[in-house]
């Protein structure tokens, strides 16, 4: 069962907010009856009509996208900046990002039209590893990074322990490359964690999500996930 406005949005008729307006305006029917309740739940067996035209629920699709820096993790932007779905313009389904990557962060981002899939992967209780590689200011040392492995408080909230690996250091430039593995997805989490141990992030990239990597892709490119990859992701999330 899913909320009516969500079903309308996933069918590509309108955004979820616009779908709510259609419902309130009496333009939506469920099994022949006008419905104006925003909390209405419908199943795949229910007949949904907008302006007396039946809609169909799209088949779920799943994409892995190599997000470039300087792109918004959204389907639209009020400042007319480039958004991730601009790169998937030939995808006919109404897809949206699973979680987000910061504007200046590159790397692996998932997109789908499957609300349950998205909710499962982004729910705080589910633990799917996400691997980031950061170029930081300063010389990274194991002792300084150890607090990350015990968990710490960031902006008043406790974050779960992370795993780290120091990939390289450049004494002359006073920079380091650090790999950080987390399973949460809080706003600016990786940047804030590294800043808290004295290593401000200069450049950040997400290289892995569960078992998925960016292998074979360049920035701005994408590929569709297969059924096995989707099942493996959901399996890791629900463990």
From TrEMBL:
Q: What is its EC number?
A: 5.4.99.-
Query: What is the main EC category here?
Result: isomerase
**Keyword presence, Cell membrane:** no
Isomerase as a keyword of this entry, yes or no, is: yes
Pfam families per the record?
Answer: PseudoU_synth_2, S4
Task: Name all RNA-binding S4 domain ranges.
Answer: 2-65
For this UniProt record, give its keywords in alphabetical order, as a comma-separated list: Isomerase, RNA-binding
Q: Which InterPro entries match?
A: PsdUridine_s_RsuA/RluB/E/F_cat, PsdUridine_synth_cat_dom_sf, PsdUridine_synth_RsuA/RluA, PsdUridine_synth_RsuA/RluB/E/F, PsdUridine_synth_RsuA/RluB_CS, RsuA_PseudoU_synthase, S4_RNA-bd, S4_RNA-bd_sf
Q: Which family does it belong to?
A: Belongs to the pseudouridine synthase RsuA family.
Q: What is this protein called?
A: Pseudouridine synthase
Species, as recorded: Candidatus Enterococcus lowellii
């Amino acid at each position: 069962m899913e909320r009516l406005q969500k079903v309308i949005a996933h069918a590509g008729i309108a955004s979820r907010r616009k779908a709510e307006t259609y419902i309130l305006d009496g333009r939506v029917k469920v099994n022949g009856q006008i419905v104006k309740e925003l909390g209405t739940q419908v199943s795949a067996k229910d007949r949904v009509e907008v302006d007396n035209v039946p809609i169909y629920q799209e088949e779920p699709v799943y994409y892995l996208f190599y997000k470039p820096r300087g792109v918004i993790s959204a389907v639209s932007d009020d400042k007319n900046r480039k958004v991730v779905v601009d790169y998937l313009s030939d995808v006919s389904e109404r897809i949206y990002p699973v979680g987000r990557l910061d504007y200046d962060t590159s790397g692996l981002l998932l997109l789908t039209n499957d609300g349950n899939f998205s909710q499962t992967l982004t729910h705080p209780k589910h633990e799917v590893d996400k691997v980031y590689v950061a170029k930081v200011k300063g010389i990274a040392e194991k002792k300084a990074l150890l607090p990350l492995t015990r968990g710490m408080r960031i902006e008043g909230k406790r974050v779960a322990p992370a795993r780290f690996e120091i990939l390289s250091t450049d004494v002359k430039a006073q920079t380091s490359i650090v790999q950080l593995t987390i399973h949460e997805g809080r706003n600016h989490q990786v940047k804030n964690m590294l800043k808290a141990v004295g290593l401000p992030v200069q450049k950040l990239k997400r290289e892995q999500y569960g078992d998925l990597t960016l292998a074979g892709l360049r920035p701005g490119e994408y590929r569709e996930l297969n059924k096995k990859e989707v099942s493996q992701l959901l399996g890791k999330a629900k463990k």
